[in-house]
Every structure is written in C-alpha cells, then in structure tokens.
Amino acid sequence: MQPIPFNLPHIGDLEAKHMLDALNDRHLSGDGRFTKLCNTEIERLTTAGMALLTHSCTAALEMAAMLTGIEPGDEVIIPSFTFVSTANAFVLRGAVPIFVDIREDTINLDESLIEHLITSRTRAIVPVHYAGVACEMDSILDTARKHGVRVVEDAAQALMSSYKGRPLGSLGDLAALSFHATKNVISGEGGAILVNDPLLRERAEIIREKGTDRSRFFRGQVDRYTWVDIGSSFLPGEVTAALLWAQLEQVTTITNARLAIWNRYHKLFESLELEGVVRRPVVPNTCQHNAHMYYLLVDGLSQRTAVLDALKREGVSATFHYVPLHSSPGGRRFGRAPLSCPVSESIGERLLRLPLWVGLSESTQEQIFNIVRQTLYSSPNATP
User: Quick one: pLDDT at residue 1?
Assistant: First the structure.
C-alpha cells in the first residue's frame, strides 16, 4: 500500500496562473485586486455583510475580540473541545474563557448549558461549528439576545456549510473563517473575518489596517490617513490572495468531491456502527455540512491508539482532536470550567480522524476501512 497522507492540498494550474498574475501586477502587499475579488466572493458565498481577508483565522478571531470590546476580566463562553485559537484570541484582550461541555451527537457547544453560565461579565458566546456541522444557532442567538451579549462564530471549518438554509458565518455578529492548508479551500495560511453587524464594519477596517483609517483614505473619504484606534497588521499578501481566489473559483467542485468521499466513508462504516463497534458522525437534518472531515468515535483511548498504530504500519496517516482546553495547562491558567465537561473528555480520547482529500480513491478508502475493521474486531472491547 502506497503511503496515504492525512491531507493533500488540491492544487492545479489555476493557482499557479493567478499567483504569477499577482507577481506580474507588482502589487504584493495586501488589498490588491485578488484580495478584493476574494472579499466579494466570500460575501456572496456566506451572505455576510462584510468579508475581509486576514493572514489567518487566528487573526480574524483576534480582530473579533477587539470588535466585541473585550476588556480585562470580561468572560467569553466557548466550548472546551476546540482549537486553542478560539480561546487565545480573547485571552490576549484580558478575557477569561468560560469552558462549556459539548453535545455527544454533533460534538458542538451544548447550547442547553450556556444560560446557566452567563454573568454580568459575559461579553460573548463563541460557538464552534465542528467538522463544518452547525451548532444549534437559533437557541444560541436567542440566549445571546436575551442577555445582550455578542455571538462570534468560529466557522474555521465551515465554509459552504449551512444551518436551516443560512450559510454559517452569517448568523452571529461576527465570524471567522480559515483557509489554512488543512481546510477545504486553502491559501496555505489565511483567513477572513465576517462582519454582520453594520455598526462594526468601519471599525473592522480600521483594526485590520493597523488602527488607521487608510481604507477611508483610498475611498476618498478623508484627505489623508492617520492613527485613530487600536489595530495590527492583519492583511495577507497578494500572492496568498491569488492562491485563494483560484480555490474560490473551484469551491463548488471541491465541496462536491469531498462530499462524495465523505459519503463513501459513511456507507462503508455503516455496518460497524450498526454492530456497535464505532459511532459515525451525526449531521442533523437542519444542517448541510461541507465534508470538512470524516471521523469515527471508538470505545476508548486504547482502541484509538491501536487503530492509529495499525494505520501507521500500513502507511496511512490519521490523527485526532483535541485535548480539551479546560484540562490543558493554558486552560487551567487562563480560563475556568464552572461545570464538568465529561463529554469533551470522553470525545478527546475516542475521536479518530481519517484521511479526506480531493482525489482519495474508492479503493484506498476500502483499504482504510479494512484496516480499521480488522483492528477493532481484534480489540478486546469490540462487539462480535
């Protein structure tokens, strides 16, 4: 069996063409024509009020923390089962992450726990759409409105996903997307902030431009630009934007190809789920996902380790997510978990991610399935 990478970026001639065009334009800093094309297309795809490219999703989250007016001692409610950037962006502004457990079915923030954790210091709720499957946004938005707090969607994995027909990233006050090389649509490193509250749009431009009103200057609204607010250098270079533009031009093709692979995995593992050996991903009827990842839930850490080792021996690269943040050294130092997070702890030991990339063949998927099946049935915890 040839080595099978966990991720293989889908890159073709169009990416090289656009990147060469950017070089030939001699505009290599941010906000050139490719950046503007990307911003406009992301707004169309997500129906967001404003999209601004950033050099990473982490940067977009950091901008969101600034735009929500976070001050030292404020609290932000986030799931424990997420990537560190979700918390770090707010910790950098002095906030205290309040870690919440996740649902067993979708592995998303448990919306039923949020209201119990809101205090006078709560400034934002940050739902993370894990695997491109939407959180229960109606409930989250209702709770946020009731208590007057912001909603920042961490939609890093969720471009082309929707909730009740509404694109993810368009539902909260703000949202962050990722175009990291491991995502469906990529620019190597990259991200975007989506600004749905019209009152935050001008300030978003200022923060992104190092705290200056440079964007207003280029629109002819002021005769010179100057420092007016806090900010930093959040723009990507134009070659990065050119790569992303090529990917966005193919976004439907890429998404459909990934969905076909996801669906083949789902069919292959159906029998193992029926026999109680694994649990497959759950996608509610209200959600359309984007096939960002395919994962399995096994019996426990020892089983997962056995499967990972077996796959590695056959040249298959697989991985897992996450060490729950509430139990991490940084989480214990900077945040709090007022309630226990047993689902996060369980999922953190049981979740196994399989390779998923455009071009992964049916025969390779069948080989991966066979390795997983044989390993699980040889486990002492397997159901005959």
Answer: 65
